[in-house]
Design a protein that fits this description.
Two copies of one chain form a homodimer. In chain A, the strands form two sheets. Chain A has a two-stranded parallel sheet with strand order 1-2. A two-stranded antiparallel sheet of chain A has the order 3-4. Helices cover 72% and strands 3% of the residues of chain A. Chain A has 479 residues and is an all-alpha fold.
């Protein structure tokens, strides 16, 4: 009874212990939020700073008398225009300034027309103007291209037009009001843009760039781990729990709309760091799309990790070696691509991995042709066959990602990676290494020398030293 | 030369013909936009109307003198609060009113504190308050739960607090200003909500409801058509162009974030039509998620429609019959589920289709066991095997969608569907029909009688008449 009462007391919503727990939980969540992305804390300080600056500007009497009541538009502008990233702030600021300018001019014209029509005609004309302009501009906001970049400007256009044309002042007063409004909006926008850009700026273009690279990397991590994870099941015959590090690719499946809005905002950003003003943001979206196509295939592969129907271990062992190589080589290729994008270099480091995965795919085909015949239960084969078939698709996808990344690198003028002359190391399967020495799959004349011929069967990858002379194209050192 | 000049003239950007073409193109796009969703035109009129009403309210002197300059806040409120759907407008309106109330009260308090501290302390305290409040509230906006529903309120909170606390008036004036601001904001919000709700309302909850149903239907359409489309290839040996009607499911892959924001807005909507205030919107998201899981599998299936590597026709013909049945029965089940959700009824019409697809899946397994052995090239088999394996997954997915839809139906109190007594027809495979007569898979005691025993092998589905007496549960007519 006591324990039950105790529990009831615990569960009662009014319990002070529970309330305290909630508050502590909330505080911990806030701390976590700040830890995850400290830029959020800095952003909050920046908003506070910009508002304080503009408020003081408004507060001090001499300035206050100069701008009059319209000065509060400066505060309002800072509150609504100041966004997390430079692109968003700049886009909103420019939208707001341009819309205030054009709508102000149009509003003054409408106001003048209305006053000319006399006492009775004035309210009718004003109402008509407001109705027509608000209706038309609201409809224009539905056009996708306008919605993507000028939605906020359209909103401010309606707002300013209504406020100016409706105001019951005389003409000179209206012109003065329009000028005041415009100057305070410009003041507020500029304050926001300056604080946002010059104090720890968050460039949404850089974020998009990194997100595209991270997404490719997440797929790479899955593929590198998939082989081990899938064939681990075969050893004890039971499907295992999905490893959480492998599941990070899931976010790629749904990142499309976020990437698009990021690209729309990035277009507003001026030249910064290695990013030009007209950086090819569209190419990032294309890379993002092929990455997502690849993620859909990986989602199917992932299903086989926990599928109830599993091919028996003896069937899976047949394809284990080649499947692991395909998957890990595709994973390495994707990780190389991600790293090249992140560093903004034009690199061909992914090419040998793609070649390796293609060679392993061909070998897997012949393994399937020759070895599956030993098994009589065809139902047992199809599960493993489906995994193999998906891996073939993944190889194709990886190539598509590489092509898209290559196009991005050339359009965005990424630097050429320096030929790897020194002790940089590259992982290659021993077979491929031999092929590359004979020049068949040689990429950029990288000569690879196998340091050891005796490698374990299924994990036949080995660190190799690659050295080349940049002038005579001959190997520098034979290790 | 003449023709070349003519072409040059055509291509010049300043060419009047080209300009006219652009304008005509733009007008046509606008027309298309209005045709696609006439509610967008109505919405534009509604915004115009609400603004005209509030503008006239502001324009006429008696009211204008009553509210003073603060009356322009009513116009401003309408412009920013009026959204396409009732949920969004109501959410923004409530956010704005509540934020203005609380921030106004806090702002008056801050202003009073500041004035108490004397001439020199006042600006310092005001600046400090603005900095702290703006910083804290900006940081709170990053919390996902707050961002989802109260983001706009937080913004207005900062805005109102700054404007009230910074204003250089005396205390009484500040209180009066706060009251004016609040009353005009309430006026603007109410005008928006009334016009939005009572003139052709757009309920975002209804949109979400329909979108979830439409998404399930799109998958159903794909699956119904997939069998024919996939095995059509086998007849001429060449992959065919993807049929555009089948490709409609692609939108389901990326609809997740849109569904989430729709559910967030729908939560603001009051009871309307068959939707209660606390309609289980979360369940819609769950149905949406399992639908998307199914769409990922369908994306993989779709790849096999245009895959370069195809199993030869003789291999595919082995599985043609069962695969077509699985795919079309799953398709029918999904379409039934979509139709039940759309009509808001608790129906079991999908159950027989799911049973059929499961039975066909079992049969397919035995077909694969027995017939694949005739083929020696195992590489040729795996493609067809992968399709079969994906179809097994699709059956599982369809069941999951059915379960989620069932849970939604019970939580949202959908009506029970009337037993189908009259000449309703149901498509069933002949085998399943016999099973249902014997009562094994009988759903709601629907007795089905096979009208013909001689059915063609692969397309063994036939329209059957199902009649039943509601009292004695015995068949009414034996055809």
């Amino acid at each position: 009874m006591v324990s039950s009462n105790h529990e009831n007391a615990k569960q009662s919503p009014a319990s002070p212990k529970r309330q305290r727990g909630k508050i502590v939980g909330f505080a911990l969540r806030l701390k976590e939020l700040g830890k995850d992305d400290p830029r959020k804390i800095i952003h909050s300080f920046k908003v506070g700073l910009a508002l304080t600056l503009v408020s003081l500007f408004y507060y001090f009497k001499p300035l206050y008398e100069g701008f009059g009541l319209a000065a509060m538009w400066a505060i309002l502008t800072v509150v609504v225009v100041f966004e997390f990233s430079v692109g968003a702030t700049l886009g909103k600021g420019l939208n707001r300034m341009l819309a205030t300018l054009t709508a102000g001019a149009l509003g003054i014209g409408a106001h003048r027309l209305a006053t000319l029509s006399g006492e009775t005609g004035e309210p009718i004309l004003v109402a008509l103007f407001v109705f027509i302009i608000a209706g038309i501009v609201t409809f224009l906001r539905f056009i996708p291209q306008i919605k993507a970049r000028y939605d906020y400007g359209m909103l401010i256009f309606i707002l300013t037009f209504c406020l100016i044309s409706v105001s019951g002042y005389r003409d000179e007063e209206v012109i003065e009001m329009g000028f005041e409004r415009l100057s305070t909006v410009v003041l507020g926008s500029c304050a926001s843009v300056v604080v946002c850009t010059f104090i720890c700026p968050v460039w949404i273009g850089v974020d998009l760039h990194n997100q595209i690279a991270t997404n490719i990397e997440k797929l790479g991590i899955f593929l590198e781990g998939f082989g081990d994870e899938y064939f681990k099941i075969s050893e004890d015959g039971q499907p295992i729990n999905k490893s959480s590090s492998l599941q990070r690719y899931k976010t790629v499946l749904t990142s499309g709309s976020k990437e698009e809005s990021m690209a729309n905002l990035a277009r507003w950003e001026p030249c910064h760091g290695k990013f030009r003003f007209r950086h090819p943001w569209n190419e990032y979206l294309k890379v993002g799309n092929v990455t997502r196509q690849c993620a859909f295939k990986i989602e199917s592969l992932n299903n086989y990790l926990t599928s109830e129907i599993q091919s028996p271990p003896e069937v899976r062992n047949i394809i284990k070696g080649e499947c692991t190589v395909i998957s890990s080589e595709c994973g390495k290729a994707l990780k190389e691509l991600a790293s090249a994008i992140r560093k903004m270099i034009e690199s061909s480091a992914a090419e040998p991995h793609i070649s390796n995965s293609k060679a392993a795919a061909e070998k897997l085909k012949s393994v399937i042709r020759s070895s599956f015949s030993k098994h009589r239960d065809y139902l047992e084969i199809i599960q493993a066959g489906a995994v193999a078939s998906l891996l073939f698709e993944v190889v194709k996808c990886t190539e598509e990602v590489a092509d898209a990344a290559q196009k991005l690198a050339s359009l965005a003028h990424f630097k050429n990676a320096k030929p790897r002359v020194t002790s940089e190391k590259q992982e290659l399967s021993s077979q491929e290494a031999v092929k590359q020495v004979s020049g068949i799959n040689a990429a950029h004349h990288v000569i690879t020398i196998n340091s050891s011929q005796s490698l374990p069967g299924s994990e036949n990858s080995k660190r190799l030293d690659c050295r080349i002379c940049r002038l005579c194209k001959k190997p520098l050192t034979w290790l």
